[in-house]
Amino acid sequence: MTHRPLIAVPARFSATTSALRYAAEVNARALIEAVWRAGGEPVTLHPHAPGGTADPAEVAARLARFDGLLLPGGGDIAPHRYGAADAHEAVYDVDDEQDAFDLELARQALAHGTPLLAVCRGLQVVNTALGGTLHQDMGGPGREHRHVRHPVSIAPGSALAQATGVDKAEASCYHHQHVDRLGEGLTVTARAADGTVEAVELTSGGPLLAVQWHPEDTAYEDPVQQRLFDALVRAARAPV
């Protein structure tokens, strides 16, 4: 049997679940299945950052056990994490421990060249970890990208273009925030028709793919979206 690279997927804290008696740590089934189809072994990673502070050495040691990292979607990042003095009324599901853990995971993955696929909130985490900022709200219904499928234009020659094999893709989006100031060392590799940043990667060419949409929504039927997970697992298999 072919070795399946271990792909860490940090869990999302959930206050309520329909099938369990207690609050839970969860990951979307569609996301996990997309990693499995790609040939990876998805492993749920418990977010641990007591008091909203993550221990860099501990996070680095935990991440070192894995071949790749997938930062999934979720609630909003606390605005103070990117230097905002106030929070917009639309900001929701902020969890200080989740933020601290995800941000440190992103820093460690980027510092050590761990193959990384960042999805929706995951892109925002990467941008914030590299000193970027976010628009806290896109303007409400009619302007935000919730429950929307729309085309995105992909930069020719980018890692995203190489991974997907296309210059345009149909993206399934669920977000009301997007990149404002780009993080250090990042370049934009896809945009929506309204100019919204839909993907970023490292200018240096490191093993990062970050998309603002949710490829797992349609990966089961759209080979272009599945190729993002394939690219993550392929990079995780590559010798260091």
From TrEMBL:
| Pfam family, any one | Peptidase_C26
The entry lists its GO molecular-function terms as: hydrolase activity
Question: What domain of life is recorded for the organism?
Answer: Bacteria
Q: Where are the transmembrane segments?
A: none
**Alphabetical keyword list:** Hydrolase
Q: Which PANTHER family match?
A: GLUTAMINE AMIDOTRANSFERASE PB2B2.05-RELATED (PTHR43235)
Q: What name does this protein carry? A: Gamma-glutamyl-gamma-aminobutyrate hydrolase
Q: Which organism is it from?
A: Streptomyces canarius
